[in-house]
């Protein structure tokens, strides 16, 4: 446990008092403050009053969420854009890069469809070669293979920072260095990483990093964050267009000569739902109140104990053991003859332990509201079910 955890959980997650939620890689329950922040805007739209006060309410939450994102990513606010989901942010390079026949994209066969189908689409549409690192005998991807696939014709390297299925984390900084040497952009799907472990896109020197809000971010559906590097902002025009791309801060809607917003905000082509923005803002404040390093260390310690416990049960863990090579989720395979859906249901119904069936195994994911006791409860429950 970290200092203040018990008080935080009691205040923010009373609904988890009698259950073990190890499923934040699927989605995280809304905290009390997240629900309250969203309701403030929902109630406004239910019974609106157009006034200076409401304008201030919108401006304040908008300003706050950008400040929170900049703190989380340890980057300037000008490198942050709000998105409605992870795919929204991945569309920035998808539609913003000037693809030509002979170009190639490097990804992997482990990716969630959100980070594979867009590149498959552009490969068919533009005659671009799609190169995917294969899943190896460890049920992981080999970074050396990823690097070997990059050459002078590579326009984009797009990977998950943490894989949704096995929890493997790539060395993004190393891959970005090689990609940039060949003139390629680097894009990361970080939905399984942001707010769960330390994620610093500017330090990693990636060009795009996108993450929806409903999982480890602790926020609602319909909102997310996207980091865009200075280089990408300078070289790639916003591919999705609307009045949101342009600076209408003077509210002169009939001006036909408006410039783009400064920085990554120019990629926001339309309205981001304010109730979702408020929810994400509240979620970022929860993690900020603890500190992302504390949250990250906590989550990695809990998943370390899960790995140890699975090994003690003689089960196959397909998640990397080293902390720097994984996120806050662990996948364990319990035998080909096992009915995974039945195990998940029994864990939920009998033991109040919530996990997911993923990638021919069971996926356990920890977050700041979980404790060492939760991990031991889950391990004991799994051992009983497998008997």
Radius of gyration (CA) equals 21 Å
- Any idea what the CATH superfamily of the largest domain is called? Type I PLP-dependent aspartate aminotransferase-like (Major domain)
SS summary, helix count: 13
Number of domains: 2
Please write the string of helix (H) and strand (E) elements.
Answer: HEHHEHEHEHEHEHEEHHHEEHEEEH
Q: What is the total tally of β strands? A: 13
In the CATH hierarchy, what is the architecture of the largest domain at level 2?
A: 3-Layer(aba) Sandwich
Largest sheet: 7 strands, mixed
**Regarding CATH, which class of the largest domain?**
Alpha Beta
Give, in spatial order, the strands making up the sheet with the most strands: 2-8-7-6-5-3-4
What would the principal axes of the Cα set say about the shape? Answer: globular
And the CATH topology of the largest domain? Aspartate Aminotransferase, domain 2
Estimate the helix proportion, in percent.
40-55%
The share of residues in extended strands comes to 5-15%
N-end to C-end Cα span: 30 Å
Structural class of the secondary elements? alpha/beta
Mean pLDDT: 97
How would you describe the overall organization of this protein?
By secondary structure, the protein is an alpha/beta fold. It has two domains: 5-29 and 292-386, Alpha-Beta Complex (Aspartate Aminotransferase, domain 1), CATH 3.90.1150.10; 42-289, 3-Layer(aba) Sandwich (Aspartate Aminotransferase, domain 2), CATH 3.40.640.10. The protein is built from 13 helices and 13 strands. Helix 11 (292-312) runs parallel beside helix 13 (372-386) and helix 12 (340-351) packs across helix 13. The relative contact order is 0.16. The mean pLDDT is 97.
